[in-house]
Write a structure and sequence with these properties.
15 helices, TIM Barrel, globular
Length: 320
């Protein structure tokens, strides 16, 4: 029943978006977009090495067409620093973000250079330092080897998501062995420290904080939150020579207390995963919303994002 409801809500959302954009001028705002991995082609997407549900199945060509679409529609792509300087409320802005720190994010650089647009890449520092696969990819590929259904894998993932990082890692090692933490190849591995250092020097690349262990911060004590954010901040500084000014809360989960801790540590902007535009005047820099970009029919998706009447947030809640 849920799938049927989601299907028809999606249809209605697309129809509303088309009608709205045909009849009205969209409101000026800041739209922030979330990517994770970038794949070269469908073969990599279907390799079974990573869980394409959180990865969104976006190819480099999808990414290229996404930027071209928004430029054509008059959007101005900005960096996190532009937000802090202050955005005029007479324009439409876009900010590109990538979460986690996958090595395959380097595939974005030629596209960013081609269009001369910036992007911020949020790094889970401990995966970089220890060259560990991300926990959701480990669970996915190990259970797939065992012939477990996708539905059961995703139910297990839901249960595991709220555990702290150390509990997740113990859970995986107990079931699949310590070797399961090792990446398979370039598709699923994080950057190495030296690769991240070089990557950070690219003209249109900015680096952000995604905690030390991709932590569900709402499950941690105040001291645990501080440690997760500050450890990532320090590691990123040691690797790149610069401390981030922006954090993307893993899973989009945060609280006022978490935002206050991030401020104390020196961060100035915080991003969630709430699917909506950020309208002017922007008052809360620590609770900015982001749209999750999926591969497939980008035009339909982008029209939904551009419309000021959206069912996307309700649809995403039904999926979760």
């Amino acid at each position: 029943m849920k799938r049927i409801i989601v299907y028809f809500l999606g249809k209605i959302d697309r129809l509303i978006s088309k009608i709205y954009l045909a009849l009205f001028r969209e409101r000026n705002s800041l739209s922030i977009f979330l990517f994770h991995s970038l794949f070269r082609d469908e073969k990599e997407i279907n390799s079974g090495v990573v869980d394409i549900n959180p990865q969104q199945a976006v190819t480099v060509e999808h990414f290229r067409r996404f930027i071209a679409y928004y430029l054509k529609e008059g959007y101005i792509f900005i960096s996190p620093g532009d937000i802090l300087k202050g955005l005029k409320n007479d324009k439409k802005y876009a900010l590109i973000t990538f979460d986690d720190g996958y090595y395959n994010n380097h595939l974005a650089v030629p596209v960013l250079n081609e269009f001369k647009v910036p992007a911020i890449f949020f790094i889970s520092a401990n995966n970089i330092k220890e060259n560990k696969s991300f926990w959701w990819d480990i669970l996915y590929r190990e259970r797939k080897k065992q012939g477990v259904s996708i539905e059961k894998i995703y139910n297990e993932r839901k249960e595991l998501m709220n555990k702290i990082a150390q509990e997740k890692e113990k859970y995986l090692i107990d079931r699949f062995g310590a070797q399961s933490l090792n990446p398979i190849g370039d598709i699923d591995r994080p950057f190495s420290p030296s690769e991240l250092a070089d990557f950070s020097k690219e003209k249109y690349v900015f680096i952000g904080n995604h905690t030390d262990n991709h932590a569900m911060l709402t499950e941690y004590s105040s001291s645990g939150v501080k440690m997760e954010i500050s450890n990532a901040q320090n590691s990123i500084y040691d690797i790149t020579g610069s401390a981030p000014d922006t954090i993307a809360y893993p899973y989009g989960k945060f609280s006022e207390e978490i935002a206050d801790i991030a401020k104390e540590i020196g961060l100035r902007v915080g991003l969630t995963t709430v699917s909506k535009k950020n309208y002017f005047p922007i008052k809360n820099f620590f609770g900015l919303s982001r749209f999750v970009v999926y591969g497939g029919n980008l035009k339909i998706l982008c029209e939904s994002f551009r419309s000021d009447i959206q069912l996307i947030f309700l649809i995403r809640k039904l999926f979760s």
